UniProtKB/TrEMBL annotation:
<protein>
    <submittedName>
        <fullName>AAA family ATPase</fullName>
    </submittedName>
</protein>
<dbReference type="GO" id="GO:0006302">
    <property type="term" value="P:double-strand break repair"/>
</dbReference>
<dbReference type="InterPro" id="IPR038729">
    <property type="entry name" value="Rad50/SbcC_AAA"/>
</dbReference>
<dbReference type="InterPro" id="IPR027417">
    <property type="entry name" value="P-loop_NTPase"/>
</dbReference>
<dbReference type="GO" id="GO:0016887">
    <property type="term" value="F:ATP hydrolysis activity"/>
</dbReference>
<dbReference type="Pfam" id="PF13476">
    <property type="entry name" value="AAA_23"/>
</dbReference>
C-alpha cells in the first residue's frame, strides 16, 4: 500500500511553513486551536494528490508574496510537487520520469482524501458503494426487487385474508338451519306423500270396519241359518283369518304429522335466509384460509430470497468482519450506521474506502475533536493493526496530538523563515526547502 512518507507545505491557505513526516501506520494527529492552519494541511494534501478539483478557492496564503508550494514524498518513491505562480502539478517517479494526475489517480482513492464525503452520504448510498465494490450490487438489487414484489403481494393477500376473516366473524350463524336452502315444491311433495300414506291408513281402517261388520253379519246369519252352518263354516273361518291379518296390519299403523312441513312451508324464506347466511360464513372462512395459505407461501418465498441475500453477502469479500448490508443499509456488529460508535463509523468508512483502491494506504480526517481519547486510541490501534495511515486534525493541544500548529507553523519545529511584511521577500527562505 502506498502511503505518505513526508510532506512540506508553504503559503497554502493558513499554513506558512509546515513539515510533517506522518507515522507509517496509525494516527498522525495535527492539533492546535481554531484558525491556526490544521485543516489547511489536509486541504493542501487533497489538492496535491487529488487534482485541481480540490484546489482551494484562495490557495495562496493571505499576506504572502510567495506563491504556494507543496512537496509530497510517497512510500513508492513518487514525488508530488506544486509550486510557482500557477502551482502546476509535477509528479516524478523513482526513475526520474515525469508523471501527472493520471498516475496519481491510478492509486489515490478520491474518498481517502475526502472521507467526510463518504460519511455524509445517505445510508443507502454508503451501502451501494460497498455492494458495488464487492461486486454483488446488481445481484443484490435484483433479489431486493424480487423480495419487494413478493412482500407487496403478500401484504395485499394478507389484507384480503384479514378482510375475509373479519367478514366471516361478523356474519350470523344458525345452528338449527339445514345445510342447503329449502325448496317449497319439495316440502309440498313431502306433504302430499304423507297425506297419501295417511289416506292408505284410513282405507285400511275402513276395510277393518267393513270386515268387522261382515263378520258380525255372518255370525248372525250363522245363528239364523243353523241349517246352513256346515256350508258357511268354511267361509266364516276364512273370514276370521282375514280379520286377524287386518287387525295385525292396523296395530302397527302410525299416522305422520305434517305440522313441521306446514311450518317450514310458511317459514321457508326465513329458513333459506339462515341457510344463505351460513353458506356465506362458510365461504368467507374458506376464502380466508385460502388467502392465509397464499400468504404463508409468499412468506416462504421471501425467506428463501433473504437466505439467498445472506449467502450472497456471506460469500462476498467484505472489507470488515461482521460488516454487511441489510435492507439497503450498512450493518456492523448488528448495528446500523446511526447506532454505531464514532470509532466504528470511522472503521467502516476507512475499510470501505480502502477496498475501493487497495493500493491507497492513507486517509485524511478532519475535526476529530468530537471523538474522546479512548475512542481515538481504539481507532488508532485498529489503523496500526490494519497497516493503514491516517492524517487527522483535532482542536486540541493535548498529548494525543503528533504535532501542534500555531499561526501556520509547527510548534517546536525550527523555523527557518520568519514572518515578513507583505512587500518584502524572505531572505533566508527558498520555496520547498526547510
Amino acid at each position: 500500500m502506498i502511503k505518505i512518507n513526508k510532506l512540506e507545505i508553504e503559503n497554502i491557505k493558513r499554513v506558512k511553513a509546515v513539515k510533517i513526516e506522518p507515522s507509517a501506520n496509525g494516527l498522525t494527529i495535527v492539533g492546535g486551536k481554531n484558525s491556526q492552519g490544521k485543516t489547511s494541511v489536509l486541504d493542501a494534501i487533497a489538492w496535491g494528490l487529488g487534482g485541481n478539483k480540490y484546489r482551494p478557492s484562495q490557495a495562496q496564503r493571505e499576506g504572502s508574496v510567495i506563491p504556494p508550494h507543496l512537496h509530497i514524498v510517497l512510500s513508492n518513491g513518487l514525488v508530488v510537487e506544486r509550486k510557482g505562480k500557477n502551482s502546476d502539478l509535477k509528479v516524478i517517479d523513482p526513475n526520474g520520469q515525469k508523471g501527472g494526475q493520471l498516475l496519481l489517480d491510478s492509486f489515490v482513492n478520491e474518498l481517502a482524501i475526502d472521507l467526510p464525503k463518504f460519511m455524509a452520504s445517505t445510508n443507502r448510498e454508503k451501502a451501494n458503494t460497498l455492494l458495488q465494490i464487492i461486486g454483488v450490487g446488481d445481484k443484490l438489487f435484483e433479489l431486493e426487487q424480487k423480495e419487494t414484489e413478493l412482500y407487496n403481494s403478500r401484504r395485499a393477500i394478507g389484507q384480503i385474508a384479514d378482510q375475509k376473516s373479519k367478514f366471516a366473524k361478523e356474519q350470523p350463524y344458525y345452528t338449527d338451519a339445514p345445510k342447503e336452502p329449502i325448496s317449497a315444491s319439495d316440502l309440498i311433495k313431502q306433504q302430499q306423500e304423507i297425506l297419501a300414506r295417511n289416506g292408505e291408513n284410513q282405507r285400511k281402517r275402513q276395510n277393518l270396519s267393513q270386515i268387522e261388520a261382515l263378520h258380525t253379519s255372518q255370525g248372525q246369519e250363522i245363528q239364523r241359518l243353523e241349517a246352513h252352518l256346515a256350508q258357511l263354516k268354511e267361509v266364516y273361518m276364512k273370514t276370521g283369518e282375514d280379520l286377524a291379518i287386518a287387525r295385525k296390519d292396523a296395530v302397527d299403523l302410525i299416522d305422520e304429522t305434517t305440522e313441521e312441513l306446514e311450518a317450514n312451508i310458511q317459514q321457508i324464506d326465513d329458513i333459506n335466509r339462515k341457510v344463505r347466511a351460513n353458506l356465506d360464513k362458510d365461504k368467507a372462512e374458506t376464502d380466508a384460509n385460502d388467502y392465509r395459505a397464499q400468504y404463508d407461501e409468499l412468506t416462504s418465498k421471501i425467506e428463501k430470497i433473504r437466505i439467498q441475500k445472506d449467502e450472497l453477502l456471506t460469500n462476498a469479500d467484505l472489507p470488515l468482519d461482521q460488516l454487511s448490508v441489510d435492507g439497503g443499509e450498512l450493518v456492523y456488529k448488528g448495528q446500523k450506521w446511526d447506532n454505531m460508535s464514532g470509532s466504528e463509523q470511522l472503521k467502516v468508512s476507512t475499510a470501505i474506502v480502502r477496498k475501493l483502491k487497495p493500493n491507497c494506504g492513507f486517509i485524511l480526517l478532519d475535526k476529530l475533536e468530537q471523538m474522546d481519547l479512548e475512542t481515538l486510541n481504539e481507532f488508532g490501534k485498529w489503523l496500526e493493526q490494519e497497516g493503514l495511515q491516517a492524517i487527522a486534525t483535532r482542536v486540541s493541544t493535548g498529548e494525543e496530538c503528533s504535532i501542534i500548529i500555531e499561526d501556520g507553523y509547527v510548534v517546536g519545529q525550527e523555523q527557518i523563515v520568519k514572518p515578513v511584511a507583505v512587500e518584502q521577500a524572505p531572505k533566508a527562505w527558498k520555496p520547498g526547502e526547510f
